[in-house]
Amino acid sequence: MCNSRLEEALVEELRDLLDAEKRLTKALPKLAKAAESEELVAAFESHNEETKKQVQRLEEALQSLGQKPLGKPCGAMKGLLAEGDELKGEADQGALRDAMLIAAAQKVEHYEIASYGTVIVWAEQLGLKKIVSLLSRTLDEEKAADEKLNGIAEELNTLAEVSQ
Amino acid sequence: MCNSRLEEALVEELRDLLDAEKRLTKALPKLAKAAESEELVAAFESHNEETKKQVQRLEEALQSLGQKPLGKPCGAMKGLLAEGDELKGEADQGALRDAMLIAAAQKVEHYEIASYGTVIVWAEQLGLKKIVSLLSRTLDEEKAADEKLNGIAEELNTLAEVSQ
After folding, report:
1. Residue A75 and residue B96: Cβ atoms within 8 Å?
2. pLDDT tens digits for range B106-118
3. How far does the CA of residue A118 sit from the closest CA of chain B (Å)?
4. Which chain A positions have a beta carbon within 8 Å of B17's beta carbon?
5. Which among A73, A129, B137, B162 is most buried, taking Cβ atoms within 10 Å?
6. A116 and chain B: CB distance < 8 Å anywhere?
7. A82-to-A24, A112, B18 alpha-carbon distances in Å
8. How far apart are the C-alpha atoms of B53 and B4, rounded to whole Å?
9. ipTM greater than 0.90, yes or no?
10. What CA–CA distance (Å, rounded) separates B82 from A74?
11. What is the tens place of the pLDDT at every residue in A45-56?
């Protein structure tokens, strides 16, 4: 069903992202549970709602290319989420653990920012306007989520220092 | 030697980054060899020179905290670089393979951008001005490397489309 090798590469990248986002919808509720700050819990929960919509957009993008909306196991995201899991297992409580959860989540956000940046450039090249429009919305959400985490981190780290 | 739990977290993150950058100094020459575009080869080669300096800055940062300059195996970077390795093994030639090498490299850059962002915020909180200054320089280089790859990607993808 692919019109070009670039379109094949795009499909592969969309499948990688679909797997990544699906993993994230399972991980975010755990991160929310492990977090202490109410603001951070709320940020993880609202980003989880966004992530569910992002999964749907990726499925829609794959279907618009005549592809089944199936993910392809994403090794990098497994590694990133394993880092988050390690953190949850550590004994730290409160602001410090929150700061570390944010650090892990921001790595995931940046992985996604890089990946969506790539698929949007490729979709533009292929003239796939619908995919560009769908996934540009997602990219904006990912950047906003990263910014929000930055703000929370700056507050939290002060607390961690005070309670050292 | 650590003054606080936040400083311990900072040391862990610096070790993770040191391992990541060392892996990258081994990977970048392979990426340069796999690339076709002269501009991309040059970008990978010059970023490799930067990366060697970034390794030294991380070692300096760890030493300034009374720590041995040793890395800690970084699972996420292993996953990211494995993605790059997969790409090199694929049969694509020319512009398309270059586009995919750039995509893999940008994921690595964004992993680093997220990580350096975290360590800089933590170092600021701890009043570690030397580390903030050293690693802010690196963060600027990583962002510039990502931007440069964006520019090359936009040219390359057009070629990939034309040769489909």
Report:
1. no
2. 999 999 999 999 9
3. 6
4. none
5. B137
6. no
7. 11, 16, 19
8. 28
9. no
10. 11
11. 999 999 999 999
